[in-house]
Amino acid sequence: MTMDRRTVLGLGGAVAAGSLLAPGVYLVAAPKPPARTEVKAGRRWAMLIDVNRCSPDCRACTQACRTENNVPLFGDPERDIHWIRKVEIRDKSHKRPSITLPVLCNHCEHPPCKHVCPTAATFQRQDGLVLVDMHRCIGCRYCIIACPYKARSLVYHETHLPEGGNPKVPIRGKGVVEKCTFCVHRLDAGEEPACVEACNRDGDKGMIFGDLNDPESTIAKRVLEAKTTTIRPDLGLGPQVYYKGL
Question: What is the reported pLDDT for 31?
Fold first, then answer.
C-alpha cells in the first residue's frame, strides 16, 4: 500500500454526526454490554513504533499477527483481511526519503467505532482495549466507516481453524467485523502482542508495548522522552499507537 505523508496523516473516515442516520431513522443506544474478558483496572495498554527502524521488506509483525490470530488470506485483494498492514509514505516534495510503517487498530481512548455500533458489539475494556463481540455483531459496517485508520474488516467468507492454527483464538464467523485486539489473549496471560514479540525477535526491533499508566514502564518513559506523534491527533480520539520518526 503506497500513499504520501499528507494522506497517511489524514487517513479518512467519516464519523457520524449525532445519532441521525437517515431522514426519520435514528440510532438507538443499546444496553451496555457486560465485561467479556479479564480486565486489569488502572492499566492503559499502548504501543510505540520507531519508523526509523522499520525496513520496507520486513514482514515479521504482519506474519506473526496472521499466525497468532488465524487471520486468513482468501486470495481476494478487495476482501482479504489485514489486522496489521505495512504502509509506505512518500514525500511529494522529495525532500525526505520514503518510509514504511505498520498501521493497525489504535485502540482509541474515545473510539468512534464504539459510538456508532447499534448493537454494542464494539466495546471497550477498563484497560482501554477496544474489542468486538462477534456474537453481537450484525455486520452493518458502521464501525468500518467510522474508523479513521481503516483498521477494520468484514469477514466475507466462511472461516475455519487452519492447519496448525492457534486454538486459543476464536474463529470469526462470516458476516462479522474483526480487527486487531492487541492479542488480548496474550495480554491476559502476561505476554506481549505477537507482532511486538516477533519484531524484537526476528524483525527490526522497532516496537515497544506496555502500560502507559505505569510511569516506570519502558513505553511511558519513551513516549515522554522521544519526539512521538500519532495518526490524526486532530480528531481528538486519543489513539494509543505512537510513532517515532513519522
Answer: 44
Q: Report the side by side order of strands in the sheet with 45-50.
A: 207-211, 45-50, 241-244, 228-229
Please return the burial class of 173, using the count of CB atoms within 10 Å of its CB with bins 0-12, 13-18 and 19+: middle
Q: State the CATH number of the domain containing residue 215.
A: 3.30.70.20
Does 23 reside within a domain? no
- Tell me the pTM: 0.81
CA distance 143 to 92: 31
Q: Please state, in angstroms and rounded to a whole number, the distance separating the CA atoms of residues 28 and 119.
A: 9
Burial pattern 6-43, b for ≥16 Cβ within 10 A else e, equals: eebbebebeeeeeeeeeeeeeeeeeeebeeeeeeeeeb
Q: Are 130 and 108 in contact (CB under 8 A)?
A: yes
Does 33 fall in a domain?
no
In a domain, 219, yes or no: yes
Closest CA to 86 of 52, 54, 50: 54
Q: Could you give the CA distance from residue 228 to residue 240 in angstroms, rounded to a whole number?
A: 12
Cα–Cα distance between 31 and 114 in angstroms, integer? 13
CA-CA distance, 71 to 92, in Å (whole number)? 34
pLDDT at 86 over 50: yes
Q: 32 lies in a domain?
A: no
Q: How many domains does the structure of the chain reveal?
A: 1
So what's the pLDDT on residue 39? 54
Query: Half-sphere exposure of 129 toward its Cβ, with a 13 Å CA cutoff?
Result: 27
